[in-house]
Design goal:
Blueprint lengths: L1 H6 L19 E5 L13 E4 L2 H6 L7 H10 L8 E5 L11 H11 L4 E5 L6 H9 L4 E6 L13 E5 L18 H9 L13 E2 L9 H9 L4 E5 L2 E5 L9 H24 L7 H20 L7 E2 L5 E2 L2 E4 L8 H6 L6 E4 L17
Parallel strand pairs: 1-3, 1-4, 4-5, 5-6
Antiparallel strand pairs: 2-3, 7-9, 8-9, 10-11, 12-13
Helix pairs in contact: 3-6, 8-9
């Protein structure tokens, strides 16, 4: 037996399974500390699995952060978890710059969407500028007919929280200030890139009744609103402040992350990716797998056929040939010139039907 052990040496590790975490499924609530100091200090950035847990750590039910968490966890399906970043006291000012709060939360990671709670409109531009430099999105609610962000941002998403055209901002239910939280918590429950942010039912909001004229104005301004159908509130538009669809931004972020992780995993797993034809094929295979996954999520078009039954691929990948690799590239050990093209699948947000009834 000892001889066999010397010949075949076996080591078996036991690993605890980790729960799967989907890309871009968690939101970050950025807010102020509790109005009443809790018995124990609250984590500057914490992850919470329930509204009860938010209250247990010391937030009062009427704290903006707690209201936002309550509305988030009211959605169906409810979030697996959410993050809360508490804005800290600054050295020379009452509160630290909002960028410092976001940088600290970014170091923790695990979240995708920034949702302010109790943060003043005057900080929205700074949040939007910070988010533009990240692979994340920023959602906010405004209680007026005009979006407070006048600049066009790729990753900022405004939601009008007015219930009616003649709403008095000072008399609106407190939930109206967190319309963005309801929308984000609902839409992040879908697999990244597979969803449209229009016509998603949200819970916890009073009934909206904006006129078609105001909703059209909101859409023209590249913002978002709600409609009430059969006693349920539904999102409409689903676009960022620059006019891009939110699902396109999220789908692109997912694909970027997927390609980055798969290629790194390949290089970490393989003893060596040789700068030879075989190595180039391995890189191409990983890109192909990522783009096929994007097709399955309806981010990009599927393969189709033309009128002559010739297959039209949904994406095209170009990897340099070894004949085109220079000695300098080989010495640098950096493969450049890898490209792909694909068409976005898009989504249907409106339908026209013309019919004729005859005897």
């Amino acid at each position: 037996m000892n001889d066999l052990k010397n010949i075949v040496d076996i080591s078996i590790d036991i690993q605890n399974p980790s729960p799967p975490v989907g890309f871009g499924e968690c939101l970050l609530i950025v807010g102020l500390p509790p109005v009443i100091d809790p018995a124990k200090p609250i984590s500057a950035v914490g992850e919470y699995q329930s509204y009860k847990r938010v209250l247990d750590v010391g937030f009062a039910a009427d704290d903006p952060v707690a209201i936002a968490a309550r509305i988030a966890f009211m959605q169906s399906p409810k979030p697996r978890s959410l993050f809360i970043a508490v804005r800290q006291e600054g050295a020379s000012v009452a509160l630290e710059p909002i960028k410092d709060t976001l940088d600290r939360a970014n170091d923790v990671g695990g979240w995708y969407a920034v949702c302010p709670a109790g943060i003043g409109v005057e900080d929205f531009d700074d949040i939007a500028k910070w988010t533009e430099q990240q692979e994340k999105i920023f959602a906010y609610t405004y209680l007026s007919k005009d979006d407070p962000l006048t600049a066009t941002y790729n990753r900022a998403i405004g939601w009008c929280g007015l219930l009616r055209d003649d709403s008095d901002q000072n008399q609106l239910p407190e939930e109206c200030s967190y319309a963005h939280v309801a929308a984000v918590a609902k839409c992040l429950s879908f697999v990244a890139g597979s969803e449209s942010w229009a016509y998603k039912a949200v819970n916890g909001m009073p009934p909206f009744a904006l006129s078609s004229e105001l909703r059209n104005g909101i859409a023209e301004a590249k913002s978002n609103a709600f409609i009430n159908v059969s006693s349920k509130n539904y999102t409409v538009n689903g676009m960022t402040r620059i006019g891009e669809w939110i699902d396109v931004i999220r789908g692109r972020d997912w694909l970027t992350t997927e390609i980055r992780q798969r290629i790194f995993s390949l290089m970490a797993k393989e003893p060596k990716i040789a700068f030879l034809d075989g190595g180039l094929v391995k890189i191409q295979n990983e890109l192909t797998a990522c783009l096929k996954a994007a097709q399955e999520r309806s981010i990009i078009e599927l393969d189709t056929f033309d009128d002559d039954d010739n297959e039209v691929p949904g994406f095209v990948i170009n990897i340099p040939r070894m004949a085109d690799i220079t000695p300098h590239q080989r010495a640098s050990r950096k493969l450049s010139g890898c490209t792909f093209t694909a068409k976005l699948a898009g989504a249907i947000h409106a339908v026209e039907v013309h019919g004729t009834l005859t005897y």
